[in-house]
Each structure stands twice: as C-alpha cells, then as structure tokens.
Design goal:
CATH topology of the largest domain: Alpha-Beta Plaits
Protein name: Polysaccharide chain length determinant N-terminal domain-containing protein
Keywords: Membrane, Transmembrane, Transmembrane helix
Radius of gyration: 45 Å
Organism: Nocardioides endophyticus
Number of strands: 5
Structural class: alpha+beta
Oligomer: single chain
Shape: rod-shaped
Order of helices and strands: HHEHHEEHEEHHH
CATH class of the largest domain: Alpha Beta
Largest sheet: 5 strands, antiparallel
Distance between the termini: 84 Å
Strand content: 5-15%
Length: 249
C-alpha cells in the first residue's frame, strides 16, 4: 500500500482517528498527572591521605598527594556499599530510596553517590546515610589491617548537601510510550475498521445483485405452469367442432 492510499484511508476513517486521538490525549494527561515525579539527590566523597603521610617533618598537601592506591580503595568501598547485604541493611534502617555508588572515571578516588526517590526528603536522607557508611566502611577496612594513623585514609565530602532535584525522566518516558503506542494502535485500528467496512459493503452489494434461489425456483415453477396452460389451451382449441368442419372443407 502506497503512502497516498494509506493517507486516503486515514482521511476516509477520520472519525476513528478522532476517537483514538481523544483516547491518546486522555492517556497523556493521566500520565502527566498520575506518574510521580522522580527526585535525585547526589553527593561526592573524596578519599585523601593525611598531610603527615609523607612524614611529620615533610607534610604534604593531601590534594596533591593522591596515589593510585586511593583509587583502589575507593573502588573496593563502592563495591562493598553496592552489595545486596548492605542494600538490605540500609533499607532495614529506614532508608528505602534506590541508590548507587561508583568511582568517577579519570578523577582519582572520587566516589559519586546517586539516590532516586519520589520524595525529595527521602532521597536526601538516603544520600546522607550512604555517605556516612562510606566513612564507616573506610574505618572497617583499615582497622582490620591495622593501618597506622599517619597512613590512614579519610573521606571528605566535596558537595554542599544540595537538596534533591526533580528529574522529569519518568513522565517523559511514560508520555513517549503512550504517544508512540497510541499512534501505532490508531493506525492499526483505522485499517482494521476500513477493511471490515469494505468487506461488509461488498457483501451487501453481492446480495443485492445475486437473485434469491428461492425466488428463482418460484419463478421457474410459474413459468412452467404458464407453459402447461398454453399447451392445454391449444389442445382444447383443436378439439372444437368448428375447427373440425373447417378442416373438412
């Protein structure tokens, strides 16, 4: 089917397009109204060594003393906090927001914490709890290895406790699904209705053109009866006396 033919079908069944368009518009309105807004709270935690890590007599700037080992420790910490047991612990503590923690690429030992929830306060609270657990996990890892105080890694929060921000992605995705699905469904319904209507119209036309078998049989019976009557009339005429005399003459 060519584009012009498809367009003609859509124009011919405009009422179906109108009904489907109203339904899709209603679905979009409900999606915007009912789909909850997602909020995202993010935080950053930097792992540093103390200034005296290079010696008390030659202290150094912790920001300039970033070593590859700090990135390794950040990766281990993120892996531990992303594990299912820790997720369950956080949830049991009353922080039910979804969170993820990872190491920022090409930035060194910088942990990125991302939390999503439909309640901005819950998202911010879960972020703060995860950041607190980062410090706790660092202490646990180093205490088990008896790391000396001069080499003990500590965490520094580099964000300013920003509030959770609205993320319109959920509503946009819902509207995209409803809009795309509604468009496809409208086209399919229009072509289905058009096919059914044309098939019904052809059937009605065929019924009007084709004679009824019952009527045809009745017509044939009447025609046969008329033929028999004509034969009887001819026979009766031949038996009349006048015709016999005329024939003798």
């Amino acid at each position: 089917m060519y584009f012009t033919e498809a367009l003609a079908v859509l124009v011919r069944r405009w009422y179906v397009v109108l009904i489907c368009g109203i339904a899709v518009t209603g679905g979009l309105f409900l999606a915007v109204k009912e789909v909850p807004t997602q909020y995202q709270a993010s935080g950053e935690v930097l792992l540093l060594l103390p200034p005296t890590a290079t010696g008390k007599g030659t202290p150094s700037n912790p920001y300039l003393n970033l070593q590859p080992g700090l990135t390794t420790m950040a990766t281990i910490t993120a892996s531990e906090l992303n594990s299912k047991p820790v997720h369950r612990e956080v949830e049991k503590a009353g922080f039910t927001s979804d969170y993820a923690i990872g190491v920022s690429p090409d930035t060194g030992p910088l942990l990125l914490v991302t939390v999503k929830d439909i309640a901005p306060e819950e998202a911010a609270a879960t972020r703060d709890e995860v950041i607190r657990r980062v410090t706790q996990q660092l202490d646990t890892l180093q205490r088990g290895l008896e790391v000396p105080e001069t080499q003990r890694v500590y965490s520094r929060r580099s964000d300013s406790s920003r509030p959770a921000e609205a993320v319109p992605g959920a509503k946009i995705r819902a509207c995209a699904v409803i809009g795309g699905g509604g468009l496809v469904a409208t086209i399919l319904i229009v072509f289905l209705v058009d096919r059914i209507a044309r098939r019904f119209r052809r059937r009605r036309t065929a019924e009007q053109v084709e004679p009824d078998p019952a009527e045809t049989e009745e017509h044939h019976r009447l025609k046969l009866a008329r033929s028999v009557s004509d034969v009887d009339v001819d026979v009766d005429d031949d038996r009349r006396p006048g015709k016999a005399r005329d024939a003798a003459r």
